[in-house]
Design brief:
The protein has about 450 residues and is mainly alpha-helical. About 65% of the residues lie in helices and about 5% in strands. The two termini are about 10 Å apart.
């Protein structure tokens, strides 16, 4: 990887693209420090401190690079764009008109991209309004109850406009990186937001589990052992994610020879690459968001998982903060680990669901048949469709189990050893996936210029 970057910097065109991307990311991080109009940073810190035990807010804070936690103008980050992109993918399957656009080449894709932008702005307004009202009631804009109706409206309106504009700017910056920089701009912005939180988390982890003080009574041997375990777990997860992201099953396809004039052409061999992790990180995001949504709404209305009510117990069941918490003094806490079972079922279900809308065995089988191809040992048509469906189901299950392992390790470590970090399995999958994809694109640009990178010898 470092060899690739070193060679890439020697090429002026690629060097300028990398510098352009870096400049955009610098703007993103600077914008994340700009507070919303009318807010007080000290008040925001005190309010957000009460939500630290809520893993839902930790999840969003990690994805926004801390801009949500500090309530900056980039508080929404690019999550509305990601959500709108997923919605458009789902609607493309359900609405024939959108499906026609998708198949209409570059023109159709531009129309879908334009619709996605409008949906993004709409979602930003809705989310911004929910944040402004919810956190406004918590006091980030001061005592709103003493304000007149007009003043209260202007405060909320200004906050919503600022957050919506911030989300729109990030969407525009991401598209500029895609066009003029290196890699997928939206993914890279998401990557830099996640990476921005890692140093603080590592420092916090060091202070709580490794650092020796007069009060914790930790021995030097214990501190070293804790550091080795933490580093080992992180390295093992990253290595596993690399294998999971790169793994694929190649389905061989043979194309029959045919006559064109007096020549016999065709007879080539190819393959269909089925990625082990076909759905990427989407199933984990879907499952996490679905479980955390009740906690977010409840928190905005002053209801928490520890309030002792029946609904509070339900929130505990849905919160990963209470999973694998086997406290010998309070054995009843272990019952909340059943929430992880719900989480696991949702991850597997969403993996199958998302794969089913992104890979159509019927369409692939028909395309192979039309082009005169066949899978060795499998007849064209319905048998090919059945074979692809069988293989896809098998591969998706393996990928879903791999995702669960990556997502579960940080949760288990947090529950058993109270080693809490904002970056977990989901974040690591995104980090590794975006880095591999970006390096692959840099490598592709360098191959054109006859440079060797990390894929070469």
């Amino acid at each position: 990887m470092f060899k690739t970057l070193k060679n890439a910097l020697k090429v002026k065109d690629i060097r300028m693209k990398l510098l352009y991307t870096f400049a955009i990311l610098l703007v993103v991080r600077l914008g994340s420090q700009l507070p919303l109009p009318g807010t007080d940073s000290e008040v925001i810190k005190s309010i957000m401190a009460s939500f630290n035990s809520n893993d839902a807010f930790s999840f969003f804070s990690a994805f926004t690079g801390g801009s949500f936690e500090s309530m900056s103008v980039f508080a929404l980050s690019i999550t509305p764009y990601i959500t709108s992109s997923i919605i458009m993918q789902l609607l493309t399957i359900a609405i024939p008109k959108l499906e026609e656009m998708q198949k209409d080449g570059e023109t159709g894709r531009k129309k879908i991209a334009e619709i996605t932008r409008y949906v993004t702005i709409g979602l930003s307004i809705i989310e911004g309004l929910a944040y402004a009202i919810g956190f406004g009631n918590q006091g980030i804009f001061g005592n709103t109850s003493s304000m007149s109706a007009g003043s209260y409206f202007m405060v909320i309106f200004t906050a919503v406009v600022a957050m919506t504009a911030g989300s729109g700017v990030l969407m525009w910056l991401g598209e500029r990186v895609t066009e003029n920089g290196v890699g997928n701009g939206i993914s890279i912005i998401l990557l830099i937001n996640i990476v921005a939180r890692i140093p603080d988390d590592l420092v916090s982890l060091y202070e709580s589990k490794v650092m020796i003080t007069d009060t914790n009574g930790r021995s030097p041997l214990g501190a070293v052992l804790a550091a080795v375990i933490i580093i080992g777990v992180i390295v093992a997860i990253v290595a596993f994610v690399v294998v999971l992201q790169a793994g694929e099953r190649k389905i061989a396809v043979q194309y029959a020879k045919k006559n064109q004039g007096r020549k016999l052409v065709g007879g080539t061999a190819s393959h269909i690459p089925l990625k082990i992790n076909t759905a990427g990180v989407i199933p984990v995001i879907f499952a996490s968001s679905l479980l955390q949504f009740p906690g977010i709404i409840s928190s905005l209305f002053g209801r928490t998982a520890g309030d002792g009510t029946v609904w509070g117990k339900v929130l505990k069941l849905l919160s990963s903060n209470y999973w694998f918490n086997f406290d010998m003094d309070n054995p009843k806490q272990a019952i909340y680990t059943l929430g992880f079972v719900i989480y696991a079922v949702l991850v597997v279900a969403f993996a199958y669901f998302y794969t089913s809308i992104t890979f159509n065995p019927i369409e692939v089988a028909n395309n192979i048949k039309r082009q005169g191809g066949f899978i060795p040992g499998i007849r064209p048509g319905k048998p090919t469709e059945d074979y692809l469906t069988k293989m896809l189901n098998y591969i998706v299950f393996i990928g879903a189990i791999g995702l669960l392992i990556v997502a579960a390790i940080p949760i288990i470590m947090s529950g058993l050893f109270d080693a809490r970090v904002s970056f977990g399995g989901t974040s690591l999958i995104i980090i590794v996936g975006v880095i591999l994809d970006t390096m692959s694109k840099i490598e592709s640009m360098m191959v054109v210029r006859n440079y060797k990178g990390f894929l070469g010898d």
